[in-house]
Write the structure tokens for this entry.
Amino acid sequence: MLKNLRHHILLHAIIFLWGFTGILGKLIMLDSMVIVWWRLLIAFVALWIFLKIRKWKFQVYSRKQLFGIIGVGAFVGLHWVTFFLAIQLSTASLAILCLSTATLHVAWLEPIIMKKRFLKTEFVFGLLIIAALIFVSGDFSSTDYLALFVGLLSALFASLFSVFNARLVQTNKSSTISLIEFFVAFFLLSIYLIAKGDFNSSLFVMTTSDFLWLLFLGIVCTSFAFLVVVDLVKRLGAFTVSLSINMEPVYTIVLAIVILGENQLLNYKFYVGAIIIVLVVVANGVVKYYMKVKALNKLK
């Protein structure tokens, strides 16, 4: 019992760290693409060193699967770039709220990619999320609307790599998948920066504070968090972990109020909409759990 409690506390500590990544998008005074470039580089190197120490062996199930992982790596890069861009365009609170809609995208992506049955409840939950977003955006400026669009795009990319990874992890180690995806996203972003003429010494110009925050983002919030969550999924179960992750928007919004003072920038509509979206996302997880239990009981 006590051991299980420790695992739950550790899980929420990791989710808290993920919630803090949105705050880092404001604290780090660099362009969103530069932040992601450094995050990918640091996360890849940190994960590679750890796996080398653990005598990890690189192995992919097939060439087709390798190309699949490479494709998902592109989604990882696109998700992080759009996420940090949304933060810089508006607020960390808005960006993380948009990210909560990834559940809505998964609802229509899974039946297509995973060949799962489309659920009416997910359609209803999706409509509620859309209604909440419309309510939230009632008094937005043009920049906020742009941030909303970019944030929703980020959620789409997040759901794409989540769904595809769910297929890939069935035949490949999650550590292998993540390492390749980090490298692919870093490589593609580097190519893009070279093509734009932005791959130069300016990438390495930053304050000591920015560099330390980047190390924290890449090592602690990315590589370390990933390794811990993989272990916690085995100990607590995928449902418990996925349901708990729905607390990330709550942690980010609280941190944004305390650290960034974003409560002065957001009105009551935002918080009402945020509460509705978080409740819908949690309710979706609970409904799926009971549907799964019901299906297992029928098989007995």
The chain has one domain: 2-299. The first helix runs from residue 2 to 27. Residues 2-299 form one domain. The CA atoms of residues 17 and 84 lie 16 Å apart.
